[in-house]
Amino acid sequence: MADNGSSTQHNSQYIVDSPPLDYTPDERGLGYQCFDCMKKYSDKIAQYLADTDEEETYESLLSRCIRVAMGLKSRGLTKEDVVIIYSTNQKNSCVPFIACLFLGIPVGTLDPMLFPSDTTHLLKEVAPKVLFVVPKSVDFINSCVKEAGINAEIIVFDETEDHESFMELLKPQEGESEFVPETVSSLDETAVISFSNTTTGLPKGIMISHYALLVECNSLADTQNFGSVSLTHATLYWISTVAILSAMVYTGGARVIRSKFDAGLTWSLLEKYQITSMFVPPSQMAELVACGRPENLDTSRLHTCVSSGAATSETLMKEIRDLLPGTFVFQMYGQSEVAGSITMFNTSNVKDVLLLDKNPSSVGKIVPGICCKVVDPDTEELCGPNQSGELRIMSKLSMNGYYGRDSSDSYDADGWLRTGDKVYYDEDMCFYVVDRIKELLKYKSWHVAPAMIEEILITHPAVSQSVVIGIPHETDGDHPLAVIVLNEDYMDIAEDVFIEYVAAKAPDRMKLRGGVRFLKELPVTPSGKFKRKELRDMVLNGEI
Known about the structure:
Residues 453-529 form the AMP-binding enzyme C-terminal domain. Residues 1-21 are annotated as: Disordered. GO terms for molecular function: CoA-ligase activity. It is found in: Peroxisome. This protein is α/β, with parallel strands linked by helices. Among the domains are: 31-209, 3-Layer(aba) Sandwich (Rossmann fold); 442-540, GMP Synthetase, Chain A, domain 3 (2-Layer Sandwich). Helix content is 29%, strand content 25%. The strands form six sheets. It has a seven-stranded mixed sheet, with helices on both faces. Strands 9-8-7-5-6-10-11 form a seven-stranded mixed sheet. Strands 1-2-20-21-22-23 form a six-stranded antiparallel sheet, with no helix packed on it. Helix 10 crosses helix 11 (314-323).
């Protein structure tokens, strides 16, 4: 295959290759790389804690990670076990995460914004041996653990009477100065479990290898000139934050830790901490624009502002670029199944810099280590430049599969990973995301399964049938909209009834922000499946 990033023809079919991977990962694993880098950068700042105005060096962070690792090892945990962290962004949230990497124990993080049913399902799915939990969520997690029917030790990030305190693990231990991480037997071993929803709504654990994360963090460090200070408000539940944490440790950079996003405060943080890279979804980017840049604000150190998680409109990109002169502002595209980034502009490359300015709606070029093809999902024929189809990936960065599940249907007959996203690329090899082929919607980076909303709607006595589709929104991604066939006795019912009904039974991201439409009959395929695309087109064209 070609290695120059060009589109080449193989057997009359287009294959898009990335630049060659000029990097040899540490064969000992991601944990060993983190350990060595934290020792190397011991006197540098690892974390700025914006909520408490504290800061912490890598020496201090390393000491705490070692003590927690030793505490976990004393419990007899092995690489066959799983550790889960349930936490907002705070001083200690990354400590057990890194400690697990030191031991080669697969580790995952659940976001406190998850719905109780999702949390319970995932706990049952991966059956963690240990759970690290923020104090305010202990009762919630206790309930989920009981409902899941698992036996997990709960460690609380504070003093506690009913469970072991995280503070106990931070006490000095004999032999900690001689501690060395475990060496992985293969870089293909699972390092991190990331979570995502299926089209049925049931979340799944994506197993990501040491190799994939080592390549991803090197790619971020090598292509983005991150500098020294990074800001993202996403928790370690998101693969982007895992990659950023790994990249900042790798380069000796600092992360600014903030528990929640606030547009006005974010502007001031840029100056206060001289932030050099910022990652924001379109919804937060829109809030920064609406808030407005304060006068006399110094953002001269901000090298990169990256938007990800959902499509960003060209208008919004131009607005944020106007507010951040001298900063490279662009959007990228990625998936947890490929350890993060799939396409991104390389700000260390002059040609890429010119292209990101020329093509504000592009999500960049294929990153090193990934080969892709664009396929017509109906005919399976491969598409050339400016022809849209499903993006499929061939890469060693691809996931090890879904934890405890068969993942074979995620690949096509030739072994290419199906992304479920409709894209195209132009003559410059810049990629553009057009739409989703899979049924999953995205609201502010969160996956929304239409099936889950439909299951709620069908329990209402007025509903005979329903189909939920996504209506594009400039900053939020998709707004769920329900098309409903009513039972005969309820023909006069108002759409607000269903909007309120779903809001009372589902998390915020599933609210019917797109509204409700009524039809006497839903269009179906010969096999009896609802024609979702046809319904969506009808709504967008104002036909219903």
